[in-house]
Backbone:
């Protein structure tokens, strides 16, 4: 993987220079945090809302970066023949995927960090009870959602189409999976649909790690399987 | 010494025969021109040779390598400038060179290359802000950043103003003087006449004529390559 670090750094800079990407990853989740915290309070069960909402929104921002921003970037690169030029170099498709994934996940991690800082300063967020588990759950979530994003970016024809498809997948999913409204507050019917979405295991595992609940092994396995399957199909389906 | 050897190259797009037995050889250190009307198969020939397309028949060796089965190895040793390729809008000139250099095992010093090709003043300029001439100059530098032995340039000067074109010619000669073999696809007869050591005229997927500009001019009993081209391809203006 020659020069992968180099490419990741440049792709991250490109993402930060794009006002849309920067808005989606950094500003938008912060605004949602503010809207959600205007009522403050506690969740059914007594957990302070902020201690649920920051882990939830970490999945929200990762989902946005994975399912909306990443596929749009990749599809736009194809549309504009950026990929065609890359294909004439020794860079491999795995390298292109790895760099895109890593750059967008770093963007999401920045968004997550920003949410945590705002949470700590403005809303008295408690630190994660089990930081190692939060990191593990977040990385698996980023891998599984990122692989789905790469698959989208591999098959959609244009950047515009990628944004439309990405948003059409992202928004219903955040609502039912508990990444935007806490699972405890969702109607049972919605929760049972949401549990089937690829965001649900990430939300559950990250929240569990933050609150100090035992980690759910099936959730981690589901994420790993999604990563392997979606990532494999994406590599197969990829066109330069 | 032969650097590119193409023998009976075939390529079909659906029912249409784009290449119908292209045969040509390019020697080391040459500037080799590929001329011909639109749709003649020039770009397809070059894309097959640089491993971007899979031929349907014939044999093809570049630096002794098969562009299909030994693609990775070949891509380390050739440079390419494609028609209508692009870079991300927001990438800066310096970043593009640095990134492309990182793909190769033995890259050129991208900073030195940037100086040599006069791109240093544009180092921090974004790709989208560059004029056509600057973009082409960057594309040449990117084609050279891997320290290639063979460079494929596809319609490099199309869309450039006359002075930028002249400037680019100088750059292509510099390349050849450093020992790089240059394959140049072009529509411009004056360009081919000024630059090329040898030329192949391709039409209907075949090489119709091959030789030095002077050989083609005498074969066409013409005063210059432009007239010779039309005499040889039996086309009227």
Residues:
């Amino acid at each position: 993987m020659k020069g992968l670090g180099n490419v990741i750094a440049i792709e991250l800079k490109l993402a930060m220079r794009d006002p849309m990407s920067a808005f989606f990853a950094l500003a938008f989740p912060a605004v949602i945090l503010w809207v959600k915290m205007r009522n403050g309070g506690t969740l059914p069960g007594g957990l302070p809302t902020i201690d649920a909402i920051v882990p939830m929104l970490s999945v929200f921002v990762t989902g946005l970066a994975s399912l909306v921003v990443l596929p749009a970037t990749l599809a736009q690169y194809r549309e504009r023949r950026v990929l065609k030029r890359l294909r004439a170099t020794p860079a491999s498709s795995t390298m292109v995927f790895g760099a895109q994934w890593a750059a967008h996940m770093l963007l999401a991690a920045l968004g997550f960090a920003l949410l945590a800082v705002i949470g700590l300063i403005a809303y008295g967020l408690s630190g994660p009870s089990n930081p190692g588990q939060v990191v593990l759950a977040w990385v698996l979530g980023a891998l599984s959602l990122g692989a789905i994003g790469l698959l989208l970016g591999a098959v959609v024809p244009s950047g515009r189409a990628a944004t439309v498809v990405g948003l059409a997948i992202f928004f219903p999913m955040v609502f039912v999976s508990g990444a935007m409204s806490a699972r405890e507050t969702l109607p049972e019917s919605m929760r049972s649909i949401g549990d089937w979405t690829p965001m649900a295991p990430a939300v559950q595992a990250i929240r569990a790690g933050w609150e100090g609940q035992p980690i759910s092994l099936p959730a981690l396995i589901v994420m790993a399987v999604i990563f392997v399957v979606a990532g494999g199909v994406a590599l197969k389906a990829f066109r330069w | 010494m032969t650097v590119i050897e193409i023998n009976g190259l075939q390529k079909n797009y659906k029912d249409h025969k784009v290449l119908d037995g292209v045969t040509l050889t390019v020697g080391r250190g040459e500037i080799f021109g590929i001329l011909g009307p639109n749709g003649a198969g020039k770009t397809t020939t070059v894309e097959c040779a640089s491993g971007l397309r899979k031929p349907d028949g014939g044999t093809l060796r570049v630096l002794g390598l098969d562009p299909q089965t030994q693609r990775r190895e070949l891509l380390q040793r050739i440079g390419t400038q494609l028609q209508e390729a692009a870079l991300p809008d927001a990438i800066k000139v310096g970043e593009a060179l640095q990134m492309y250099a990182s793909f190769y095992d033995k890259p050129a010093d991208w900073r030195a290359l940037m100086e040599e090709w006069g791109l240093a003043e544009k180092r921090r300029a974004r790709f989208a802000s560059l004029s056509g001439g600057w973009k082409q100059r960057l594309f040449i530098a990117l084609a050279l950043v891997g320290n290639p032995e063979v460079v494929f340039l596809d319609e490099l000067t199309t869309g450039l103003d006359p002075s930028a074109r002249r400037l680019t010619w100088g750059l292509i000669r510099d390349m050849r003087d450093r020992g790089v073999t240059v394959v140049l696809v072009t529509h411009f007869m004056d360009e081919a006449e000024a630059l090329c050591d040898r030329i192949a005229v391709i039409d209907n997927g075949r090489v119709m004529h091959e030789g030095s500009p002077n050989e083609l001019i005498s074969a066409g009993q013409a005063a210059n390559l432009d007239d010779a081209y039309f005499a040889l391809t039996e086309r009227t203006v």
Summary: The beta strands of chain B are 2-13, 16-27, 31-35, 57-62, 78-81, 150-154, 181-185, 198-203, 206-211. The interface with chain A takes residues 50-52, 72, 75-76, 80, 82, 84-88, 90-91, 95, 98-105, 142, 146 of chain B (CB under 8 Å).
